[in-house]
Each structure stands twice: as C-alpha cells, then as structure tokens.
Amino acid sequence: MPAGPSPRCPFPALLLAVLAALSLPALFSPPASAALDNDFNDPKRCAACHPDIFSQWEGSLHAQAAEDGIFRKFYEMVVEEVGPPAVEFCMKCHSPVGVLRGEVPPATGEKLSPIALKGVFCDFCHTVTPKGGIGNAAFETTFSATKRGPFDNAVSPAHGTKTDGFYQRSEFCGMCHNVTHPLSGRPIERTYEEWKESPYNTGDPATATHCQDCHMRQTPGNPGTGAVEKRDNLGKAAVMGPERPHVWTHYFVGGNALYPDRPNADRRRAMVEDRLRHAAKLEILPEDAPKGAGDLATFRVRVHNVGAGHKLPTGLSEVREIWLDVTVTDAAGKVLLRSGEIGEGGGIDPTSAIFKTFLGIGKTNVKLSCCFFAIGERSKILSAERITRDRRILPKGYDEEKYAFRVPEGAAFPITVAAKLNYRSMSQAFADIFYPDGSLTVPVLRMAEGAHSFAKPARKSAATP
Fold first, then answer.
1. What is the largest CA-CA distance in the chain?
2. Contact in structure between 244 and 234 (CB atoms under 8 Å)
3. Euclidean distance between CA atoms 230 and 8, whole angstroms
4. Which tens digit of pLDDT belongs to each residue from 224-253?
C-alpha cells in the first residue's frame, strides 16, 4: 500500500505561508510561454513548483492525449464511421477540458483552445471528484483553485489544497479506463473491471494493489509491476515541500511502445520495454520426447501473467498483439517447426498463438490475427457488435499452446525448442491505414523467452542371455 504521509513539519508549512503572505511572485512565476486561462492553469505554471512531476508528465501519453497523431487519425476514422455520437465520446477522455468548455464538436479540433490541447493534465486531474462513477469519462470537476491530492500536509502559496484518498484508488483511473460503446453497449475497454475482478483487488486496504501502485511507482530502472518488489519513491512533490517517504510518479507508463519524438521519448521507450519484460513469464513443458527418426514429439508453451493487474493485453485489446514465436531446430540448424514469424508485409503467421480479443460484425468475424481487417475493409472497431473470442491472460493466470513435430530422417540431436513472447502496440496493417506511405514501422518487443532441448536418446544396450 502507499506509504503514509510524512509527519507534519511546521517549518515548511510556516515558511510557505509567510511567502504567500509576502506575495513573492518571482519565486513562483511561470514562464512567459505558459498560457493563462480563466478555468485551468497551463501545466508549465505547475512546473514552477513541481518540476520533476512536470517532466514526468510532459513525456507521458496523457500529455499527448488530444494531439497524438495516431489517435487523431483513428478518431477521425471513428467519427466518419459512427457519426455524431463519437465526436464527444472519444474526446471526453482525450481532451476533457475541450468537451467541458464546449470546444468539441467539431471533431476536426479547430475550436480547441491551447489549454484543451494539453490533454489530460495537472489542473484537470487535481480538480476532479469521484461523484461521476466508473467508465465513459464519468468524472466531475470543481473548476476550483483548490487542488486535490493524497497528502494531508500539503501547503502551497499558489493554491489551496485538499486531501482526497480517491487519488490513491483504482476508481480514479476507472473514470476513463473503462469504456462502453455509446450505441451498442459493447465493451471497448475494461481495464478497471479486469483489475476489480483480479486477485490484486483483495478488498482489504492493507493488501490491495491499486493501479497507482504499479503505474505511479515506476521509475527508470524500476518497472513497478506486480512481479517486482514495490519500491517507494523518496523525494519532494514540490520544490519547497517536505521530504516524503513516497511521491507518486507521473510517467503513466503502460504498454504503448509507439512513441513520437516528444520530450524524454527515449526514456519512455526504455520504461515501456522494462514494464513489458516484467509483465509475463514463459515456460516450455516437454511431453513426448522423440526417440528417433519418425517419432512425434510434443510440448506445451505456457505463458504466465505475473506482473499486470489486468488481462494481457488490455485496453483496445483487439488492436494489441501478444503472440508466441516458436522455433524448433536440430543440432545442425535445420528448422523442424516454425510458428509465429512475421511475414514480409508485417503480418503474423496465422498459425501463431495470439493473445487478444476478436470481434464480429453480424455473422462475419473480423480477422485481426495476422493483419488488421484482412478482408480489406477499413477499421470497424466501433461498429463491431460482439466479441467473438477473448483469448487474453488473466492477472496471475496463464494460458498455453500445444505444439507437435515429427523428427525427420537424419536429424541431429539435441533438438532445441526456442520460444519467445512478442508484443506489438498494434498490427503493422493497422498502422499502414494511418500511414499508407509506410513511414511508421511498429516495433516488436520481447516480453519473455525460454528454451528446452530434447537430448539424443540413449543407445539401447545388448540383451543379456
């Protein structure tokens, strides 16, 4: 559980109160480039007192939620497909201030003010209340100069403060990370519910692991998943605040490895890869060992979700791709079995074991296994009426695939099985919809790997009389 607040220290609080009373604006003045707004402060203004947190947020996808190139292209496609109901639906979470202030519609974004283009930012998050519920942007905002947060001894010369334990619970994240189709009611994203139904949600405040305990503990070198020891982040939340045993980080790293050249892009990519490597474990379980040429050998590859408090993958899980890449070779390097390789066009071998959700429209199954809509249609994610299959790995659960191969004549022992668990944020075919010039290559990241050798069978001894 999150560390408790630091003991009250009267000196910093008194000092800040004195500074506020003396009105020393030079110490807290924002840069000239920070936009002034009647309702919400530009995050650059917050950076004057919270530079570390600002730096973390500035490199996050929350900061880019309204402007990210892939989101904008996808959003325009969805609006074209679904019509007016999608215009505000998507932007409620991607530009909540834009929707709150009536700057959406239109979907094209020309009415969005500079502050609305900041996406999910400090002054919005720290003025919301839990009255709205869960899912589909179920938040309310106080539009207040008083900022809410988890500490009970925060004092600021720039704004009022209010302690709110809601900021340390998964329900805070669930306001947006639980999405239901606005027309059909089909689940689109269920990350919060996946956590709620998981072993991480014990129902006991002393033992439960909330979203923040993983996604707001990660630092470079500390992946912060359920597979590693929780580490507190010692430091200051504000430059003139007290030293705290734990300060929540604001990198908000998840599984999105498609990252544009924005502030601290290299740092974020490394943190995404670190998180993914500590989310799953792979093991190879041999069954029938071959004794010679012509024998059928079998084995299973089991994938464990050891670090994610939700299913693997989560989010828009019909787009995400996690799959097994398995190769069996003999001692001479001859390939005896291959499953999971990527073809020339970027599609995954259709024989692969792929962990994701699959959609259907009417009586048609949407083919998402080796490429996005192999039937040649544009994206129909919002039009899909049903989930035809959900093959994802439960938190602290596992799934497995069985493989078989026949040993050919002349095969050299030992025979080696090599298995890799790969991840892509989206299929290459899906990316090509947005970037038809081929300028975007979706990186393939390794989550886990393992190997097993079938040894040369022992020579039979001669029978004794």
1. 107
2. yes
3. 25
4. 999 999 999 999 999 999 999 999 999 999
